[in-house]
Design goal:
heterotrimer; A mainly alpha (238); B mainly alpha (245); C mainly alpha (67); B: 245 residues; mainly alpha; C: 67 residues; 85% helix; 0% strand; rod-shaped
Chain lengths: 238, 245, 67
């Protein structure tokens, strides 16, 4: 016979910080268990870049002029592809509802989820991009900027995309709708991301473009969590 | 003043007040657009550079103004709806969005048609036209999102959130597109930055702009009334109203 | 008056193919919006009236049954 003491419910100490770290760890673990979901955007990215020379022409001169735009658009679409699953599993199994009921503000709890998404989608894409840049004969000297602009920009993409994902998670077949909602909002990031690479190729200053990307990321970090949380609440109610 | 605002907030109050307001706004819209249109088509002098093709301005600019203003209107209605839970605001937003999309389309179409004699091609990636195109996509997204939800109230709230997100992004999109445009294109002949227009050219334009705004208000009043009847159809006062007719 | 005859007005100084479509599409959209709104109201009223008739019909019948 085991002795059952008086039932006491206590808030674990540490509060918000613990919750954020725990959510990040949980999401990373869950995502890493589904390897294919992490790999799919990367494979998609590589495939799209492979298709372009086949569709256009294998001339390195032509390819190198359109390479910055191609790489960025392909990476953007790859991010988009992975967005639908951002909240899907948690929505279906009810853990999202649990998060909403917890004492911590939902806006803070979605942040580690988005961070996990960026760490396993945006960052790998940014690291992989230089390899694909070689295939498109991207001029030397712009590879570092390519990675950096993608890493910075894709964080904004994850944040803004999460708003769209949260709005469409309760909708059946929300995938197409999601891209319709999110793509127009991606345009500024695309413009400054490619701008940075083109500036690097032209030899002019890269800093302003990267600063703009950083500013957009700061703004998205500040505002997007509230929009994501509000959207999740709507999706969970409807 | 506060009484009127309060009255506008309730569906029934809006319905009765808008019935009194509506004829005047329609009359103003019709009068302004008739005078402005005839003046612009018949009496305004031809442009020294573009000839009579510049007369497209009298529909292009008002439509473009409305396209942008209606989006801001959507966001304002969204805030009113989300913060104060005023349903009439959402009803107005739901009828404004399709009209805004229509105006965006008109601005794009007239801009493209105007481009043929001016630029020699239907489409130029001009900053204004590009922003307009993106605006059209934003409108379509809001309309589609509202329709995608099975539950109407959730659809309303989702569309409201998206409208607010969109309106925060529009200036960022606009400036980045403008910046992109100056980077990639040599300065072309711009449509609206012209050597100061003479009064007989811009006065009809002003009339048309104000007329279009009145039209938009009148149409929104009219369709919001329909929306009120639809959504409140089981309420006592609507049933009394229907029976009284 | 910027034009001296009806035909020159219609020709729009050679730009008729651009000016008239732009005005036409705008006008069509505005007129279409008004027609749509009016039709919407008419249909809605018809629906509401039909429903009201049915409901009063049902309730009066119930009244007869109860008595």
């Amino acid at each position: 016979m085991s002795h059952v003491g008086p039932l006491t419910l206590r808030e674990p100490r540490g509060g918000l910080g613990v919750a954020v770290v725990a959510t990040l760890r949980r999401d990373m673990t869950l995502k890493l268990r589904r390897r294919s979901e992490v790999m799919n955007p990367l494979v998609f990215f590589a495939l799209v870049i492979t298709l372009f020379p086949l569709g256009v022409a294998p001339e390195s001169k032509l390819l190198s002029t359109i390479a910055p735009g191609l790489l960025w658009v392909a990476a953007l679409l790859a991010t988009l592809l992975s967005l639908d699953s951002l909240f899907r599993v948690d929505f279906d199994d009810g853990s999202l509802e649990q998060m909403m009921l917890s004492h911590q503000p939902l806006a803070m709890l979605v942040l580690p989820k988005v961070a996990a998404h960026w760490l396993l989608t945006g960052l790998p894409l940014a690291l992989m991009a230089p390899l694909l840049g070689v295939l498109l004969s991207l001029p030397a000297g712009s590879y570092g900027v390519l990675s950096l602009s993608l890493a910075l920009g894709s964080a904004s993409l994850s944040l803004v995309g999460a708003i769209g994902a949260a709005l469409t998670v309760g909708v059946s077949r929300g995938g197409v709708l999601l891209s319709l909602l999110v793509l127009p909002l991606y345009i500024p990031v695309l413009i400054f991301g490619t701008g940075a690479i083109q500036a690097a190729i032209a030899g002019s200053g890269v800093a302003p473009h990267l600063a703009m990307l950083g500013a957009m990321l700061a703004a998205a970090l500040m505002l997007a969590p509230w929009a994501i949380a509000a959207s999740l609440r709507i999706s969970l109610n409807g | 003043m506060w009484r009127i605002i309060h009255q506008l907030g309730s569906p029934k109050g809006f319905y009765t007040l808008s019935a009194r307001l509506q004829p005047w706004v329609w009359a103003a819209a019709a009068l302004l657009m008739l005078i402005g249109g005839l003046w612009g088509l018949l009496y305004a002098p031809a442009d020294y550079q573009q000839g009579d093709s510049f007369r497209i301005i009298y529909v292009h600019v008002p439509a473009a103004f409305l396209a942008q203003s209606i989006f801001v209107g959507l966001a304002v209605a969204a805030v009113v709806f989300l913060v104060w839970k005023i349903k009439v605001a959402d009803m107005a937003a739901s009828v404004m969005a399709p009209f805004g999309a229509g105006m965006t389309f008109v601005a794009l179409f007239s801009g493209a048609v105007w481009g043929v004699p001016t630029w020699g091609t239907w489409w130029v990636w001009d900053a204004r036209l590009t922003s307009m195109l993106i605006l059209l996509f934003l409108y379509i997204g809001i309309i589609a999102l509202r329709g995608a939800y099975a539950h109407r109230d959730s659809g309303s709230r989702a569309a409201s959130v998206l409208a607010i997100v969109g309106v925060i992004n529009i200036p960022i999109i606009k400036y980045s597109v403008e910046w992109w445009n100056t980077l990639h294109q040599p300065a072309t002949f711009s449509i609206t930055e012209r050597p100061a227009m003479p009064a007989e050219m811009w006065l009809p334009l002003l009339l048309m702009v104000v007329g279009f705004y009145c039209f938009c208000i009148a149409l929104t009043l009219m369709r919001t009334r329909n929306e009120i009847l639809r959504r409140e159809s089981s309420k006592r006062w609507v049933r009394d109203l229907v029976r009284g007719q | 008056m910027a034009f001296d005859s009806v035909s020159s007005f219609l020709a729009m100084g050679g730009y008729a193919a651009y000016v008239w479509p732009a005005w036409g599409v705008t006008l069509a959209l505005l007129v279409g919006a008004v027609i749509h709104a009016r039709a919407e109201r008419r249909l809605l009223m018809r629906d509401l009236k039909r429903r009201e008739r049915r409901q009063t019909h049902v309730s009066s019948k119930e009244g007869v049954d109860a008595s």
